[in-house]
Amino acid sequence: MSQRAQEVASNLNSVEERINGACRAANRERSTVTLIAVTKTYPSSDVEILRSLGVTNFGENRDDEGAKKSQAVDAHWHFQGQIQSKKLKSISSWAQTIHSIDNSEHLDKLNRSLAETGKSIEIFLQLSLDSDPLRGGVGVEEILSLATSAMALEQVTLSGLMCVPPADWEYEMAFDQIAQKAQLFAQHFPASTSISAGMSGDFETAIRYGATHIRIGSQILGSRTYPQ
Length: 228
Known about the structure:
With 228 residues, this protein is an alpha/beta fold. It has a single domain (3-221), classed as TIM Barrel. Helix content is 45%, strand content 18%. Strands 7-6-5-4-3-2-1-8 form an eight-stranded parallel sheet.
């Protein structure tokens, strides 16, 4: 095993131990939490190492990187970045899950692109806690309407909500709000109860508040050495 592979394996083991600990503390089964290894800006060789270690879910924020790496490594690929309408057709060609849908135009365009190929895709709707337009996402009332539209589309499966807490919010407050809004959402859409929330700095808190999908990069692959 190369030095890099040993480093990644050690980091992954530490993260898994922390996930297991958080699940035990929350009285949850480990199987209820999906670990998505976020590989943005890291080389495909790192993805290959993680795949050899048993990781099956990978996340990318950029279409070009995701398209390239998904060709190199067969896995379940997630797109979680802000969406450009012109990129949707390409994103839907390699990603099996999209975490950042936040408007009906993107929903419709995605469904049309998928209908052309016969492919279906899993989506999360992006919830905003502070309505910051620079960060994407929408509030609860709008997201309920968006979900109703998503449920009517044949090529799309609605899994639940994704949320990135505002940087200036305290973790406990943010994830408590996410949990409350996800509970309300589930009352309207009981088949769409997944919660994509939690990253390298806060995933244990996210698990405690019910996150089903956590997106972790630097805790596994180390500090990024060039701009994101």
